[in-house]
Amino acid sequence: MAHSTRPLHLYPSLCTINRFFPSKSTFSPRTVRFPPRRFCCAAGSATSVHQRSEEMKKNPSEKRRKIQIRFRLNHQVAFGEHVGIIGSAKELGSWQNQVEMVWTADGWISQLELPAQSQLEFKFVIFSKGNKDKIWEDGHNRVVDLPKEGKFELVCHWNKTGESIDLVNCDELGEIEGKIDGGNGEEVEIEVESTTKFGDEWQGKDISFMRSNEHGNRESERTWNLDGLQGVVLELVERDKNSRNWWHKLEVVRDILTTSSEKGSRLEALIFSSIYLKWINTGQIPCFEGGGHHRPNRHAEISRVIFRELERISYTKNISLEESLVIRKIHPCLPSFKSEFTASVPLTRIRDIAHRNDIPHDLKQEIKHTIQNKLHRNAGPEDLIATEAMLNRITKNPGDFSENFVEQFKIFYSELKDFFNAGSLAEQLESIKESLDEKNLEALNLFLECKKNLDNENTGVEQLMKTLKSLSDLRSVIIKGLESGLRNDASDSAIAMRQKWRLSEIGLEDYSFVLLSRFLNEIESKGGSNWLAESVNESTIAKSWNDPIEALIVGIKQVKLSGWRSEECNAICNELDAWKQKGLNEKEGEEDGKYIWGLRLKATMDRARRLTEDYSETLLSLFPNKVQVLGKALGIPENSVRTYAEAEIRAGVIFQVSKLCTVMLKSLRTILDSSGYDVLVPGVTQGTILHVESIIPGSLPSNDINRPFILVVNKADGDEEVKAAGENIAGVILLQELPHLSHLGVRARQENVVFVTCEDDDKVAYIRSLDGKFVRLEATASSVDLSVSSPTNNNDVLIPNQKIISGSKPLESPVISKNIFSIFTGTTKSPSVLNILKATVELSGAKAASCSRLASLASLSQKVYSDQGVPSFFYVPSGAVIPFGSMESALQKSGLSETFQTLISQIETAQLQNNELDDLSLELQTLISSLEIPSETLYELSLIFPQNATLIVRSSANVEDLAGMSAAGLYESIPNVSLSNPNGFGSAISQVWASLYTRRAILSRRLAKLPQIEASMAVLVQEMIRPEISFVLHTMSPSERDPRIVHAELAPGLGETLASGTRGTPWRVSIDKFEGEVSTLAFANFSEEMLVRDGPGLGKGEVAKVTVDYSRKGFTVDPVYRKQLGQRLCAIGFFLEQKFGCAQDVEGCVVGKDVYIVQSRPQP
């Protein structure tokens, strides 16, 4: 796609307009009659424009008159690109700013009111949001004379600026027929609208009618490129080269799919098959006669084998989400195998038609050679296209041919559509009626009635919602009927009916896309997100928000019915339904009802959008590379290859669900007065924007080690260490949500790196547009400002973060004294096990010592209450410590001390290049993981813990949990171990020791300028708690640094969800230490909680991931519980802060009414 010159709006005389009429109507899937009023577009002369201008001066009312034009562009763009329209009228941006078009199933749409009786010049442009650059169409401007009144549609194609243009009157729609005077005496033929999906998507050669057997000479040059191919794709391309006709190509797919499970390439086989069949059905891979006679029954029999294999895979226990997604794309590409098509001589009606005596000889020959003979020798998708074209031709002028002939041809056309499974949704549903019981038939008839009413009437949202709900109910019925799977002894007729059921439910999913698109148009017509935001009050909330919420529920149910993360879809739907039923109250507890309503709904909406993003990311991970490989090998046009995955996403219901989420989230941000940013570490910094996938060493340019960068990061897992990826990282903008008190958040705060997250689509687009530019990032607790700047003194020098704290000076990074670590040499004689109460910093590290202190404080806390009378008491799990020196002792007993010392000295200077550091790190970890735990250690632990107790082993290094160096999450913790399994327990201990030498741990110490030899590891062993809620407290607000405020983040289940940075938002509250006021800042929306469970399929104390439904979680739905637990945690945190003498970073969990504290360390 080339960049064209600027629009030619200064040279209207150069703009030549030709005639054009669209082959497809936007407004109805049915054939329509051409309206009596017709308007044409032509280049307007200067005189005519002047005369019109003078007339409008004489009659000012003419100036104010508007007409409605719906522009439609049939064009695919790359992922992330959008299409706009720009032109001479102010409504089209006066050639300055494009009007963004909306993607629909029928192409890019923009409906505008424009000045009547004026001449309009315009072009289409492609752009990316946040980027000012545009890709213009080539050629002259398009020019159209607008009529005096009416509503019209105008259909165009990208880069065909010389194509003819017609304004189609849309006041009433009937059958398109007749001829239009081109204005210059020419007659222009108009084709009837294509009525099948095949016709709509056809990209193959135009059909030409033949009067002799010329098929063998019509194959165009094709090229096959086998370079670099292997496995499934190599087999497919090699066999395609020798498979000229459709049935041979179907055989290729059959053989690849039926052998893929044995070869271990099932997903790959499914992906390549779906792409291959799609290109065949759209004509991009042409089919030709290959000699011999192979009637359509051959194709039907192959299709039945493929269908059986797809159904078998669909109901195997080990099917993946990705396989389910791809299989659904194959089904619509297969022909029918009903009994009439597996008969020895199927589709015989066309033979009788071709031998009729009431049609001209030439027409008879064309039908015989273009359709009949071709179909009965080597049927292919092109036969349906040819039949559609012939039907258009013989029905264009009523009366030209006998009614009986036309009727018979229409019947044949219906039969052929049935063979290609190309019938309309209504036709598909009619075909399964005979197999439904009375109750299910009632559901089908209700949907068809709703659809008919919606199509025939100028109905509003109420009828649209009825149709959506009836569609969802009907699809659920069909899916339930398919759940039993396909029996091995199923009859051919039963399998054929099952195919119709499958295609019907896929068709219903496709139609839900159309309905949701119409619903979105209804919302936009009322004012979109602004209207929703303005409609939030007790009296109007149900009227304005219930339908959008219900439409979103229906959309997500469609995603679930398609097999995509059904438990997650169920949970989201349950939450949305609960929030809809709960409604809006003036107050919720002591907090503002509108604010809590918005926060709660936003949490679920963010979760829903995350679902759509996961789906889209999965599609993008599956298709683009394979499309590129197969497209290059088969010679497919570049544009088709480039836009394949984007088209698949945009054509699915997931796209409309995503759009609905976006509209509602935008409204909720307005209601909550949210900027779209979330600030984890405030401050001011500068640097060059650099877009990276994740924060890992090697992300930064190796030749720019002193140049400051602000990273724009796609994903984070919470275990990253910012400065380990580069000391010149000045700031981070993460494009996903992240708990403030996650390990990554804590480390960024400690490293003094400005850190914000952003998920607002418009802001993300702006951020992306700044890639490579030098910017200033200023983040406060309440706002974020990102703007282009200039390097200080023209030097790209790292500017330290200047933290913005109200009423205080900029904080300096805490300094760690090396002397703290020098006493731990790993040679001190120590007992093999210590009771937790005897743990000290010198013997077992700050974490174990803190747990020892916590155990002592737990009994004291029983008698302490806050000023509001809230108890501060808590419990601490029982524990023991394997002290410093134990690992070194095990190395000495194994005779590995010398090897260990050599490796330690080598990693001090090991480089990142050539994987030198990685290789040494892996060698060290392997060495330590092989160590055996002394039997006396296991014996001493058995005196402290019951033999069957479920335990967790945790790190307690001499280089973590210190003021200025928390090393949060840097070292390993291994849950669910037991002394009853000595080997498993011993392996867990050695894994914790080995985590001292992971790549991240080594780089972290190197960054802190700590010698590797001085690092030592003790192991903390504790009884494992089975929490209902886990939490992290910072006893001083981390963003405002307000000592009065305790900041708490909570998550359901185990704390790993919270600490590791699992994608999602925790419950977030702030509590005033002295007033006891609890303020809700965010509701949780993590998709899963980690629970310790016993049960079938699980070992004792196994960790299971369970989908969360927050409509059943007290902290989300019960304001009293939220306040009580918040105040309790605040009282505990304040107590610990006072006892430890500084602000604390506290980790703990809730079990019933009991609160357990598992860790407390100085807050960064």
Produce the secondary structure layout.
Layout: E1 39-40, H1 46-58, H2 61-64, E2 66-74, E3 82-87, E4 99-100, E5 102-104, E6 107-115, E7 119-127, E8 134-136, E9 142-145, E10 151-157, E11 166-169, E12 179-181, E13 187-189, H3 197-201, H4 231-241, H5 246-263, H6 266-281, H7 296-314, H8 321-330, H9 339-342, H10 349-354, H11 361-378, H12 381-395, H13 403-419, H14 425-432, H15 438-456, H16 461-482, H17 492-526, H18 528-534, H19 541-561, H20 566-582, E14 587-588, E15 591-592, H21 593-622, H22 624-634, H23 638-642, H24 644-650, H25 653-672, E16 677-681, E17 683-692, E18 709-713, E19 729-734, H26 743-750, E20 754-758, H27 761-769, E21 774-779, E22 784-788, H28 819-822, E23 834-835, H29 841-861, E24 879-882, H30 886-893, H31 897-907, H32 916-929, H33 935-942, E25 951-957, E26 973-977, H34 982-994, H35 999-1007, E27 1017-1023, E28 1029-1034, E29 1045-1052, H36 1056-1059, E30 1067-1072, E31 1078-1082, E32 1088-1095, E33 1098-1107, H37 1114-1117, H38 1119-1140, E34 1144-1151, E35 1154-1162
Parallel strand pairs: 2-10, 17-18, 18-19, 19-20
Antiparallel strand pairs: 1-11, 2-6, 3-4, 3-7, 5-6, 7-8, 7-9, 10-11, 12-13, 14-15, 16-20, 17-21, 21-22, 23-24, 24-27, 25-26, 25-27, 28-29, 28-34, 29-30, 30-31, 32-33, 34-35
Helix pairs in contact: 4-5, 5-6, 5-7, 6-8, 11-12, 12-13, 14-17, 15-16, 16-17, 16-19, 17-18, 17-19, 17-25, 18-25, 19-20, 19-25, 20-21, 21-25, 31-32, 32-34
